Amino acid sequence: MVHGLRVSRKSRRVKSCLWVSIIGVWGTRGVGKTTLVKNLNNDFLKNVSSSKLSLGIVVWITVPKPPIDIRNIQGQIATRLNLQVDNEASVQIIASKIYQRLKEEKSFLLILDDVWKGINWDEVGVHQPVVPATSKVTITTSSLEVCRQMRTNVEMKVTTLIEDESWQLFVKNAGDCANLEHIQTLARVIARQCGGLPSAIIVIATSMRGNTRVGL
Known about the structure:
Blueprint: E1 6-7, E2 22-26, H1 33-50, E3 57-62, H2 70-80, H3 91-103, E4 108-115, H4 121-124, E5 136-141, H5 144-149, E6 154-159, H6 163-174, H7 181-193, H8 198-208
Parallel strand pairs: 2-5, 2-6, 3-4, 4-5
Antiparallel strand pairs: 1-6
Helix pairs in contact: 2-3, 6-7, 6-8
GO biological process, one term: defense response
Organism: Capsicum annuum (Capsicum pepper)
Protein name: NB-ARC domain-containing protein
């Protein structure tokens, strides 16, 4: 497990993937992909710092639901880059400006969170292979097919927690009250009903924190 999340064995080899251009993090919705990417991002920043390297900029984009809105994605990137673009300009012109701006950085990290459908990198302004080579792109999605459509180099699957892991996370967020004799049986049932989804477990367990009574 990584920070309360379960990832496939392949995805645990994060350091060996350090110089891979595009990484896809996928798994069912609510399993904690966004949380995992945030934690990996922090670890990545520590690693490059210890290597006396530095990221020029980190760009986090929350991708809107379909239909795909390239202008929205370009607008978020442009804002993070402090790049002035003409809203009346074509997608191609804005993509060219984004590409040229990113080339000015020694390295960058671009994160596209919650991708529902494949996005054309060239239309956004991120050409493959990513230039410079030390730059990274990470996407999170519920679909392995989306990873393939976006030509990821490595796919990391985030899976649901097994029952014992779910209970440990539940207790961590609910507190000692979850282990009280008159509460534990019901609490374990509630934890199982969360289906191994960390986000659901955390929300429900936190709402029970400090409650020592059963019922209304």
